[in-house]
Design goal:
47% helix; alpha/beta
Length: 158
């Protein structure tokens, strides 16, 4: 099932299961996972894209080996808050992906996540070749951490 709202998504989560963040690019899928308490995200890896069915199988195998309880997919919202063709493409990816799993899927606004990831890698003086290998996983980490922070905020409300 796909949730547009993180608060609705929260209600569908099983306790003590991590989440997986996905940064969907045209050439790669960046993956990140959380801890079981849903407090901290960590970059995992970057998967080179092939056909959708193969991509989905890879992600589901990786998520299954980590006992993931749900997915956060970065949604590229324009700076003015509108959705363009890229957002529609990601929504299509998510819709097709959700048909292959019973786990909940939610979107998170990914504005500037790649910019933040690039800045972090530049500040760490990571070589250009290495940056290109890890940037999408780090962007997925930023996306997932944003969603985790929101989940934490929602759960702390009385």
């Amino acid at each position: 099932m796909i949730y547009d709202s993180i608060s609705s998504f929260c209600g569908s989560l099983e306790p003590m299961r991590p989440l997986m963040g996905i940064d969907v690019g045209t050439k790669t899928l960046g993956l990140a996972t959380s801890d079981i308490l849903l407090t901290t995200a960590g970059a995992l890896l970057t998967v080179k894209r092939e056909k959708f069915s193969r991509d989905a199988i890879k992600v589901l195998q990786i998520s299954g080996s980590r006992n993931v309880g749900g997915f956060i997919i970065g949604l590229p919202i324009n700076m003015d808050g509108s959705e363009g063709p890229k957002a529609q493409s990601i929504r299509s990816f998510a819709w097709n992906f959700s048909k292959k799993t019973s786990l909940p899927v939610a979107f998170w606004d990914e504005r500037l996540s790649t910019v933040a990831a690039e800045k972090t890698l530049l500040e760490a003086d990571v070589a250009r070749k290495r940056r290109s290998e890890v940037i999408d996983a780090l962007a997925a980490c930023y996306i997932l951490q944003g969603a985790l922070d929101r989940i934490s905020h929602l759960r702390s409300k009385p």
